[in-house]
Amino acid sequence: MSVTFPIGFRAAAGAAGIKPSGKPDLCLITRDGPDSPGSGSAAVFTRNQILGAPVIVGKRNRARLLRGEIGPARAFVINAGNSNAATGDRGLHDADACMAAVGALLSCPPTAVFPSSTGVIGRVLPVDKILAKLSDLAAQLSRGPVADAAAAAAIMTTDLVPKTAQAERVIAGHLVRVGAIAKGSGMIAPRLDSATTTQAKGTMLAFITTDAAIASNDLQAALDEVASLSFDRISVDNHPSCSDTVAVLASGLAQAVKGAGRGLTAMEPLQRGTKDFAAFVAILAQVCESLADQIVVDGEGATRTFRVEVAGADSRDSAERLAREIINSPLVKCAIHGRDPNWGRIVTAAGNAGVPLDAAKMSLTIGPVEVYKAGLPIMDALKDPRLADAMAAKRVECKLVVGLGPASATMIGCDLSAQYVSINADYTT
Amino acid sequence: MSVTFPIGFRAAAGAAGIKPSGKPDLCLITRDGPDSPGSGSAAVFTRNQILGAPVIVGKRNRARLLRGEIGPARAFVINAGNSNAATGDRGLHDADACMAAVGALLSCPPTAVFPSSTGVIGRVLPVDKILAKLSDLAAQLSRGPVADAAAAAAIMTTDLVPKTAQAERVIAGHLVRVGAIAKGSGMIAPRLDSATTTQAKGTMLAFITTDAAIASNDLQAALDEVASLSFDRISVDNHPSCSDTVAVLASGLAQAVKGAGRGLTAMEPLQRGTKDFAAFVAILAQVCESLADQIVVDGEGATRTFRVEVAGADSRDSAERLAREIINSPLVKCAIHGRDPNWGRIVTAAGNAGVPLDAAKMSLTIGPVEVYKAGLPIMDALKDPRLADAMAAKRVECKLVVGLGPASATMIGCDLSAQYVSINADYTT
To answer: How many CB atoms neighbour CB B22 within 10 A?
Structure first.
């Protein structure tokens, strides 16, 4: 299950006719019950400077929510097939129309509706088709595996498989559940902002629900922390989208665990700095890491993934830049595709990260085999059968130690295949 | 012709056995005559933090030359098939051995020999093979089309065609010639340093000769200026090499033009700030722009090139970053390959350049057709047959206006094809 795994959520999805294929392309996910101190919402968005209309709306509402001017979101309305991006004021107006329609159907303010769109850029959103389908979906909202599967399928674009994740854990005497769906296969290199810091880059979308009780500002803090360690750690094509969005709704309806000595009381909202908050962050991270991994495994044309750990950097930022430069090099990606232990491409990619390096302090290990040490090639390594095995693995792993400090970072990419080219050479035409 | 087109240069090339294919892989280019005030040399190198041994040696000797501690270079010794990079002190020792051998053959100091290597990274240079071949080459040094063609062929790696350029112009009463060879097809996104500023990124190599009289410091200034406007403006794969090098030798032997009223006197060295210097920079630029263009046209797997002009940026740096982000996006490159006018990829790529943008001020034109204006799609544009023609052109051209200032920049990239993947998935194995 996914988004209706936590208590208090329903979902429905169907075909509004946005995708030319006629496949499902519209999804509605809603939270039940009145707002409460524990029914927060939070979101992180792309840092691309060109923003899809739903992202502009979402960022604006996030700011208003955190200032207390509006209440939390209680519904996601998500379409695939059209990103409503590069559409100017018309796009904003169209997003507003979808929100208003859902608000009317759910008897909630339009600002409590969180819109999201993915698909072709620069085409006017077919709002009429969406509005015509929404009342069907509102009438079909339900819980369970069928609704969850429909939701996950309706948000796919070039994805080959739907992506879902769930986790649960007893926190503060209550069984807290997290459920989620995600999409993304191309234009994937999310670098998400947070509500409190500034910084972002793919279209990947993830919609998360939880029955934890947690207010919006604490939920935002949890999401900020988790997104930077999950979605921000993957790249398919080093081209962040104008629409990348990760959003979460909390119902606060987690059930008390019998025998936990707290009776059947409602869960108290989780607060930053507490052990219970950390426990929630841990299961949220588990879900987000799973989704991020599923996205890169299903990267356009990908046949295998490539995990790079950089250690010994002078700062985490340096470590991240090094790891990111390596997984994004087309030459490295082709070598991974060809199972070619051409590690010089890895080392020189690192050299392009804009981080000062000292070759004499560097070493590189692929799988269990050290191939480069203290700036020198280990020639026998190329004959080691374990190196060929490591390069042929479904998940190729390498570790670059730069010897300049204590910081480390990991990024996960994928190989570059001829299939990638054919998928992307003919997307809109 | 190429490197022996200017007066005072000879070349020879052959197979030393470095390339497993047995193709030519060693090239020697020399300047005749004694050093004079007009026989300068200059070079620019990759800004990759991991440097091939010849680049380390070359940077060191450039600094010594500009401090007056050593004389100008008078010979290039270039091998393909092995980059002598990621080879530590052993690599430096091997480069020194090649320089010493050439110095002995030419009766010049080893520091007057400029070494360069391209090919697989992380393999010990087969110095014995090189040394065994050098005396043959020294005995065969000659001028003319045959020597020039041999030189251009010997430095190729995955290049499909040799690259040469030449230009001539009467400057200060003398017929000044510039000739050059270059190589490069993959690991191409040169960002070259200069001797005076700090900054760099592919293996592209270019070796230029001229019979202009110009001292090393003035020649370096000319090369710094020209490289930033030619080689730095191209990218095949956004992976600058550890070996990128552009170097130039001047003989000072340009012949006086009859009737120019100066008799048969030797050319006086050109000096910065003069009209004659500017005239020399112009023909040097003509040669470098031609070579840079030839490299991107012959980019690995490339079927067409893609030229992006960014205008209206707040600074040249912003304009360059925007143009670079666009030509390096794999999604944009695939769209070019597929002749797909999916311009949303271009606009969102720009959004990832780390440059603040205002969509409402932006417009994009592909060929003669404006597709995006003031943040809005021009829907009729997609039906314009001129757009399809522009996308199908051998040289696709687009212009992005960002409306934030007066600065502009141009970058030239190429499409991403399935052939690119097959070339690079199986390079060393």
So the answer is: 9
